[in-house]
Protein backbone atom coordinates (compact mmCIF):
# COMPACT_ATOMS: atom_id res chain seq x y z
CA UNK A 1 0.00 0.00 0.00
CA UNK A 2 1.39 3.39 -0.95
CA UNK A 3 2.14 5.67 1.93
CA UNK A 4 0.66 9.11 2.30
CA UNK A 5 2.66 12.02 3.62
CA UNK A 6 1.87 15.02 5.76
CA UNK A 7 -1.38 13.80 7.24
CA UNK A 8 -1.74 15.37 10.66
CA UNK A 9 -2.21 12.81 13.44
CA UNK A 10 -4.93 13.97 15.84
CA UNK A 11 -3.92 14.55 19.42
CA UNK A 12 -5.59 13.19 22.56
CA UNK A 13 -5.12 9.46 22.12
CA UNK A 14 -7.13 7.29 24.59
CA UNK A 15 -5.15 6.58 27.74
CA UNK A 16 -5.61 4.14 30.61
CA UNK A 17 -7.70 5.34 33.54
CA UNK A 18 -5.47 3.52 35.99
CA UNK A 19 -1.96 5.02 36.19
CA UNK A 20 0.96 2.75 36.99
CA UNK A 21 1.99 3.43 40.60
CA UNK A 22 5.51 2.17 39.91
CA UNK A 23 6.27 5.16 37.67
CA UNK A 24 7.78 8.02 39.67
CA UNK A 25 7.23 10.76 37.08
CA UNK A 26 4.28 11.16 34.65
CA UNK A 27 5.02 10.25 31.06
CA UNK A 28 4.81 12.83 28.30
CA UNK A 29 1.78 11.76 26.16
CA UNK A 30 3.33 13.33 23.07
CA UNK A 31 6.58 11.41 23.54
CA UNK A 32 4.67 8.17 24.13
CA UNK A 33 2.58 8.68 20.99
CA UNK A 34 5.68 9.56 18.96
CA UNK A 35 7.36 6.31 20.04
CA UNK A 36 4.21 4.32 19.29
CA UNK A 37 4.01 5.64 15.72
CA UNK A 38 7.72 5.46 14.95
CA UNK A 39 8.32 3.69 11.66
CA UNK A 40 4.61 3.58 10.72
CA UNK A 41 3.28 5.00 7.46
CA UNK A 42 0.75 7.82 7.60
CA UNK A 43 -2.05 5.48 6.50
CA UNK A 44 -1.11 3.00 9.26
CA UNK A 45 -1.24 5.88 11.75
CA UNK A 46 -4.71 6.88 10.51
CA UNK A 47 -5.86 3.26 10.70
CA UNK A 48 -4.50 2.86 14.24
CA UNK A 49 -6.10 6.09 15.39
CA UNK A 50 -9.46 5.17 13.86
CA UNK A 51 -9.49 1.78 15.55
CA UNK A 52 -8.51 3.28 18.91
CA UNK A 53 -11.22 5.93 18.60
CA UNK A 54 -13.95 3.53 17.49
CA UNK A 55 -13.05 1.12 20.29
CA UNK A 56 -14.68 3.65 22.66
CA UNK A 57 -17.92 3.87 20.66
CA UNK A 58 -20.47 1.18 21.46
CA UNK A 59 -21.45 -1.02 18.55
CA UNK A 60 -18.79 0.20 16.12
CA UNK A 61 -15.61 -1.90 16.64
CA UNK A 62 -17.10 -4.97 15.01
CA UNK A 63 -17.84 -2.95 11.87
CA UNK A 64 -14.10 -2.64 11.20
CA UNK A 65 -14.08 -6.29 10.17
CA UNK A 66 -17.49 -6.27 8.50
CA UNK A 67 -17.85 -8.06 5.14
CA UNK A 68 -17.53 -5.76 2.15
CA UNK A 69 -15.65 -3.08 4.08
CA UNK A 70 -14.09 -0.38 1.87
CA UNK A 71 -11.58 2.20 3.11
CA UNK A 72 -10.04 5.19 1.47
CA UNK A 73 -9.13 8.87 1.74
CA UNK A 74 -12.08 11.21 2.18
CA UNK A 75 -12.08 14.73 0.76
CA UNK A 76 -14.38 17.46 -0.52
CA UNK A 77 -14.54 19.19 -3.89
CA UNK A 78 -17.07 22.01 -3.92
CA UNK A 79 -20.17 20.65 -2.21
CA UNK A 80 -19.38 17.02 -2.99
CA UNK A 81 -17.92 14.57 -0.48
CA UNK A 82 -15.71 12.05 -2.22
CA UNK A 83 -13.28 9.28 -1.36
CA UNK A 84 -10.52 7.56 -3.31
CA UNK A 85 -8.70 4.31 -2.67
CA UNK A 86 -5.47 4.29 -0.69
CA UNK A 87 -3.71 2.70 -3.67
CA UNK A 88 -4.59 5.72 -5.85
CA UNK A 89 -3.07 8.38 -3.57
CA UNK A 90 0.71 8.60 -3.39
CA UNK A 91 0.90 11.49 -0.93
CA UNK A 92 -1.09 14.32 0.60
CA UNK A 93 0.81 17.60 0.79
CA UNK A 94 0.22 21.28 1.54
CA UNK A 95 -0.25 23.42 -1.55
CA UNK A 96 3.25 23.96 -3.02
CA UNK A 97 4.51 27.13 -4.69
CA UNK A 98 3.29 27.02 -8.28
CA UNK A 99 4.94 28.42 -11.40
CA UNK A 100 2.35 29.16 -14.13
CA UNK A 101 2.73 27.56 -17.56
CA UNK A 102 1.95 29.95 -20.45
CA UNK A 103 -0.71 28.72 -22.85
CA UNK A 104 -1.86 25.86 -20.60
CA UNK A 105 -5.44 24.85 -19.93
CA UNK A 106 -7.07 27.15 -17.33
CA UNK A 107 -7.41 24.25 -14.88
CA UNK A 108 -3.67 23.55 -15.06
CA UNK A 109 -2.40 25.93 -12.40
CA UNK A 110 1.23 25.34 -13.36
CA UNK A 111 4.11 23.20 -12.12
CA UNK A 112 5.76 22.86 -8.72
CA UNK A 113 9.10 21.54 -7.56
CA UNK A 114 8.39 18.73 -5.11
CA UNK A 115 11.60 17.18 -3.77
CA UNK A 116 13.43 17.88 -7.01
CA UNK A 117 10.65 16.70 -9.33
CA UNK A 118 8.50 19.05 -11.40
CA UNK A 119 4.85 18.08 -10.99
CA UNK A 120 1.82 19.54 -12.80
CA UNK A 121 -0.67 21.10 -10.36
CA UNK A 122 -4.28 20.68 -11.48
CA UNK A 123 -7.30 22.54 -10.13
CA UNK A 124 -9.52 19.47 -9.94
CA UNK A 125 -12.68 21.44 -9.23
CA UNK A 126 -12.14 23.57 -12.33
CA UNK A 127 -11.45 20.49 -14.45
CA UNK A 128 -14.65 18.83 -13.26
CA UNK A 129 -16.99 21.78 -12.79
CA UNK A 130 -15.44 24.67 -14.74
CA UNK A 131 -15.26 26.74 -11.56
CA UNK A 132 -11.93 27.84 -10.11
CA UNK A 133 -10.95 26.71 -6.61
CA UNK A 134 -10.56 29.49 -4.07
CA UNK A 135 -7.17 28.68 -2.57
CA UNK A 136 -6.65 29.05 1.19
CA UNK A 137 -3.91 28.61 3.80
CA UNK A 138 -4.80 25.02 4.66
CA UNK A 139 -5.07 23.98 0.99
CA UNK A 140 -4.05 20.38 0.31
CA UNK A 141 -3.16 18.52 -2.87
CA UNK A 142 -3.36 14.81 -3.60
CA UNK A 143 -0.36 13.36 -5.42
CA UNK A 144 -1.68 10.90 -8.01
CA UNK A 145 0.32 8.38 -10.03
CA UNK A 146 -0.13 8.55 -13.78
CA UNK A 147 1.79 7.17 -16.75
CA UNK A 148 4.83 9.33 -17.35
CA UNK A 149 4.97 10.86 -13.88
CA UNK A 150 2.95 11.98 -10.88
CA UNK A 151 0.47 14.85 -10.88
CA UNK A 152 -0.97 16.90 -8.00
CA UNK A 153 -4.68 17.75 -7.82
CA UNK A 154 -6.25 20.28 -5.47
CA UNK A 155 -9.01 19.43 -3.01
CA UNK A 156 -11.13 21.83 -0.99
CA UNK A 157 -11.02 19.90 2.28
CA UNK A 158 -9.34 16.76 3.61
CA UNK A 159 -11.34 14.43 5.88
CA UNK A 160 -8.75 11.68 6.33
CA UNK A 161 -9.65 7.99 6.32
CA UNK A 162 -13.23 6.96 5.64
CA UNK A 163 -14.76 3.47 5.86
CA UNK A 164 -17.92 2.14 4.21
CA UNK A 165 -19.71 -1.20 4.09
CA UNK A 166 -21.85 -2.83 1.41
CA UNK A 167 -24.94 -2.16 3.53
CA UNK A 168 -24.34 1.58 3.17
CA UNK A 169 -24.02 1.54 -0.63
CA UNK A 170 -26.62 3.57 -2.51
CA UNK A 171 -28.66 1.86 -5.25
CA UNK A 172 -27.41 2.61 -8.76
CA UNK A 173 -30.60 4.46 -9.65
CA UNK A 174 -30.25 6.70 -6.60
CA UNK A 175 -26.65 7.50 -7.50
CA UNK A 176 -27.62 8.28 -11.11
CA UNK A 177 -30.03 10.97 -9.89
CA UNK A 178 -27.69 12.49 -7.29
CA UNK A 179 -25.27 15.41 -7.62
CA UNK A 180 -22.40 12.95 -7.14
CA UNK A 181 -22.92 11.71 -10.70
CA UNK A 182 -23.68 14.96 -12.48
CA UNK A 183 -21.61 16.34 -15.34
CA UNK A 184 -18.03 15.09 -15.52
CA UNK A 185 -18.34 13.39 -12.15
CA UNK A 186 -20.35 10.65 -13.82
CA UNK A 187 -17.18 9.44 -15.58
CA UNK A 188 -15.30 8.97 -12.32
CA UNK A 189 -17.95 8.09 -9.71
CA UNK A 190 -19.60 4.72 -10.25
CA UNK A 191 -20.77 4.01 -6.70
CA UNK A 192 -21.65 5.92 -3.55
CA UNK A 193 -22.33 5.31 0.11
CA UNK A 194 -24.70 6.88 2.60
CA UNK A 195 -22.99 7.62 5.91
CA UNK A 196 -24.84 9.49 8.67
CA UNK A 197 -26.34 12.58 7.00
CA UNK A 198 -24.05 12.68 3.95
CA UNK A 199 -23.54 10.73 0.75
CA UNK A 200 -20.01 9.93 -0.40
CA UNK A 201 -19.01 9.18 -3.98
CA UNK A 202 -16.07 6.87 -4.69
CA UNK A 203 -13.95 8.88 -7.08
CA UNK A 204 -11.55 7.00 -9.37
CA UNK A 205 -8.28 8.94 -9.52
CA UNK A 206 -6.85 6.13 -11.62
CA UNK A 207 -9.53 6.67 -14.27
CA UNK A 208 -8.91 10.42 -14.09
CA UNK A 209 -5.20 9.89 -14.77
CA UNK A 210 -6.07 7.84 -17.88
CA UNK A 211 -8.46 10.44 -19.32
CA UNK A 212 -6.92 11.77 -22.58
CA UNK A 213 -7.81 15.43 -21.99
CA UNK A 214 -6.40 15.32 -18.46
CA UNK A 215 -3.21 13.54 -19.55
CA UNK A 216 -2.48 15.90 -22.43
CA UNK A 217 -2.43 18.93 -20.17
CA UNK A 218 -1.06 17.29 -17.01
CA UNK A 219 1.70 15.18 -18.56
Written description of the protein model:
The chain is α+β, with helices and mostly antiparallel strands and 219 residues long. It has a domain at 68-219: CheA-289, Domain 4 (OB fold (Dihydrolipoamide Acetyltransferase, E2P)), CATH 2.40.50. Helices cover 21% and strands 29% of the residues. It contains six helices and ten strands; from the N terminus they run ααβββββαβββαββαα. It has helices at 29-37, 42-54, 124-129, 172-176, 205-210, 212-218; strands spanning 70-77, 80-85, 89-94, 108-114, 117-122, 140-144, 151-155, 157-164, 189-195, 198-203. Strands 8-1-2-10-9 form a five-stranded mixed β-sheet. A hairpin with a 2-residue loop joins strand 4 and strand 5. It is globular and about 45 Å long. Residues 1-27, 29-34 and 49-63 have low confidence and may be disordered.
Short description:
This protein is an alpha+beta fold. The protein has helices spanning 29-37, 42-54, 124-129, 172-176, 205-210, 212-218, and strands spanning 70-77, 80-85, 89-94, 108-114, 117-122, 140-144, 151-155, 157-164, 189-195, 198-203.
Amino acid sequence: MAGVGVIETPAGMPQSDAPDSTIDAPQDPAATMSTHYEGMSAFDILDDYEQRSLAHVAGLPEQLDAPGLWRGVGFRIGSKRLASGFNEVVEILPMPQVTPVPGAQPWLLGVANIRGNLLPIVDLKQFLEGERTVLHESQRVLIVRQPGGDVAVTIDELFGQRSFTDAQQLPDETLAQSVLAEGRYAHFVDRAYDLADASWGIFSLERLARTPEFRQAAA
